Structure to design on (701 residues):
């Protein structure tokens, strides 16, 4: 395999590797905790080249970044130079194909922000072309003369061999550049928040570092034998197995590490390792191979009492450190548990695993946490540069926003008092109610924003029950082996399928939007409160001259014509903030608005699609009709408005029809399953237990 850079690109080669990276990175699990503060942290405002800021008034930053606007020059001359691999002190590497280019570009921007030399190995010619166009230092991986004949989608062996290509590529770098001490590899669906170099320097004994799917920082801190938690088997003395995630790893240029890389690549091209007879587990990909290799031979032992976190694996031939999830966070630890920020640190890197919506889901979470660097200044409400190509230009509408502040926890607490006097409500029921409440608020807010021609800032999402691909979530409404409690603030994708919002062109921003340092202060400060009153005020349309200028009041059941009239005096404010404990306040479009109301109802149903539901009651290919339970969706706006009533969770009529296949019947008896707690009061009491995190004591049932 040869490494070549963009200027030497030649004939078209197979582009069938699309989806390969996702195969490595898309872990479909879901989950959630207790701290009520919003702890979203952002890229430091002092960082060079914040996304959406104009680098032209910062000469130094502009020079550092490959993305600066340059006058068009002939394509062949524009390839970004590759770093000098014989002199750089370390190197960041990723792998990309054209289908994942946007992620690759975002990855590169985060790497540029931490000032690291990097290169991207391009897996297809489309990627190479995009690298040229966008000034990214890319090397085409040359797969050899057979490449054009490989159909990756259908040829499992070839797919597996692609994993070997990645491993070989890194090995070649190390072998061809003996003075290159350290290579850090991360998939394009990772982001770097700060440099990892000190971290590696301070751990000189280890030759190989890998991230993991472990979900508990606590378990990693305690570092004890027989901890009994899943996915954290890298702690020596635990039988549960490694859950190394090769989407992020680092290799030192040592003989031991190179030998391990050779063996790893060898496993991936060895036909004996293919498990084609087991369709559920045939994917001996690079990740499974590495886990198998490290588990297979002798397990792991600590290097010494002084350095217990460096472990010997692979027959004691390799010194491995697993990167702690606090600092090299997977998607659950970062975006659902929010552990790093709760512990007062920013992660060094985040790998956007543990989510359900593929690239749009990853992009949404990165946006929510200020780590998506691909949006232009206009996205943040900065005026578009005059005459900008494709920009809205000088005559463009300034960004006008509508936010909605709600107290979901207060609503759920009130419902608990009414329905379970003297007792507690099961977590699943709290979640179902809370999500139904938040869906109603979201619908009203979306409709009001459209009526006003504003972009909606969606409210933060609060959950009492996590999602998980496995129904074991119905034990405690949290994934086992985690550090969070309930309720927890969840990413937006817990409430609504974010891919749909994008697909339907809905104008929205994430709940954290106004905290982004790219948002101009002039926008942030241009703000008016819009209180929601339970009833129409005696004087609904006060003349601005008689008010003291703080905002406006709307009321339960208000319709479009009155809404526009009430808000007219505050329309010049960039941000209107709806406030008040009146769910379902929006009365619709008024007597003339039947068609618009129907349109909005249809849009909302399309946005939710098959979601707007709890997802995870069954396992395997049976009982899929009993896998979901819809949250209560708001009454259509086209219907006559009635005050919103908290919905009541009813016993599903299918409880006794679930089959015994894959244990599905058994799951209906788990305490957080509505078929269980709605029929058994003592289970309901157990299901109300929200105590503590979930990283101790596995309860077998
Ligand atoms: C209700 O649940 C409890 C466990 O909390 C169990 O011991 C009991 O048998 C259940 N009752 C019925 C009728 O299933």
């Amino acid at each position: 395999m040869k490494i070549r850079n963009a200027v030497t690109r030649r004939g078209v080669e197979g582009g069938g590797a699309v989806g390969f990276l996702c195969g490595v990175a898309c872990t479909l699990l879901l989950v959630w905790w207790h701290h009520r503060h919003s702890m979203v942290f952002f890229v430091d405002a002092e960082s060079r080249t914040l996304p959406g800021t104009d680098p032209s008034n910062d000469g130094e930053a502009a020079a550092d970044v490959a993305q600066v606007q340059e006058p068009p020059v002939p394509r062949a001359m524009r390839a970004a130079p590759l770093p000098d691999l014989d002199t750089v002190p370390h190197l960041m590497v990723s792998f990309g194909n054209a289908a994942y280019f946007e992620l690759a570009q975002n990855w590169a921007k985060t790497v540029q922000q931490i000032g690291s030399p990097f290169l991207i190995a391009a897996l297809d010619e489309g990627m190479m072309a995009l690298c040229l166009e966008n000034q990214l230092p890319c090397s085409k991986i040359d797969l050899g003369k057979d490449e054009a004949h490989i159909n990756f989608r259908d040829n499992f062996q070839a797919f597996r061999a692609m994993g070997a290509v990645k491993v070989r590529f890194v090995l070649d770098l190390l072998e061809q550049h003996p003075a290159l001490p350290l290579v850090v590899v991360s998939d394009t669906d990772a982001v770097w928040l700060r440099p990892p170099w000190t971290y590696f320097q301070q751990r000189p004994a280890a030759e190989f570092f890998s991230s993991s799917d472990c979900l508990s920082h606590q378990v990693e801190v305690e570092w004890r034998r027989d901890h009994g938690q899943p996915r954290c088997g890298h702690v020596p003395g635990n039988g549960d197995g490694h859950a190394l995630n090769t989407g992020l790893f680092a290799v030192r240029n040592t003989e031991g590490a190179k030998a391990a890389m050779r063996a790893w690549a060898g496993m991936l091209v060895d036909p004996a390792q293919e498990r084609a007879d087991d369709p559920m587990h045939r994917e001996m990909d690079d990740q499974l191979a590495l886990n198998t290799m490290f588990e297979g031979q002798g397990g792991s032992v600590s290097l010494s009492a002084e350095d217990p976190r460096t472990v010997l694996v692979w027959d004691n031939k390799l010194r491995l450190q697993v990167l702690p999830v606090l600092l090299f966070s997977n998607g659950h630890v970062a975006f659902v548990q929010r552990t790093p920020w709760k512990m007062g640190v920013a992660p060094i890197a985040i790998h956007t695993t543990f989510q359900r919506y593929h690239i749009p889901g990853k992009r949404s979470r990165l946006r929510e946490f200020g780590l998506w660097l691909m949006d232009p200044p206009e996205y943040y409400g900065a005026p578009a540069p005059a005459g900008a190509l494709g920009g809205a230009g000088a005559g463009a509408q300034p960004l006008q926003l509508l936010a909605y502040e709600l107290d979901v926890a207060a609503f759920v607490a009130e419902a608990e008092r009414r329905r379970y006097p003297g007792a507690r409500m099961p977590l699943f029921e709290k979640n179902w109610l809370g999500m139904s409440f938040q869906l109603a608020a979201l619908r009203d807010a979306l409709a009001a924003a459209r009526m006003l021609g504003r972009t909606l800032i969606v409210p933060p999402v609060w959950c009492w029950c996590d999602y998980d691909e496995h129904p074991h979530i119905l034990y405690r409404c949290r994934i086992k082996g985690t550090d969070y409690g309930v309720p927890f603030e969840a990413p937006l994708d817990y409430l609504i399928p974010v891919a749909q919002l994008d697909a339907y062109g809905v104008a929205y921003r994430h709940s954290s939007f106004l905290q982004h340092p790219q948002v101009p202060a002039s926008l942030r400060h241009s703000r008016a409160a819009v209180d929601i009153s339970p009833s129409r005020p005696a004087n609904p349309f006060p003349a601005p001259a008689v008010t003291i200028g703080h905002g406006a009041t709307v009321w339960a059941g208000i319709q479009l014509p009155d809404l526009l009239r009430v808000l007219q005096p505050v329309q010049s404010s960039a941000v209107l903030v709806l406030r008040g404990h009146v769910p379902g306040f929006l009365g619709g479009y008024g007597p003339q608005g039947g068609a618009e109301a129907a349109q909005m109802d249809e849009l909302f149903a399309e946005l939710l699609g098959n979601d707007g539901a709890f997802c995870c009651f069954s396992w395997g290919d049976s009982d899929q009709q009993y896998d979901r339970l819809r949250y209560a969706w708001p009454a259509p706006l086209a219907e006559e408005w009635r005050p919103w009533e908290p919905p009541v969770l009813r016993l599903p009529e299918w409880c006794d029809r679930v089959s015994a296949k894959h244990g599905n019947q058994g799951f209906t008896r788990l305490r957080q399953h509505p078929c269980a707690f709605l029929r058994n009061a003592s289970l309901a009491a157990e299901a109300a237990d929200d105590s503590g995190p979930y990283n101790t004591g596995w309860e077998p049932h």
Notes: The first strand starts at residue 3 and ends at 5. The chain has 22 helices and 25 strands. The chain has a mean pLDDT of 85.
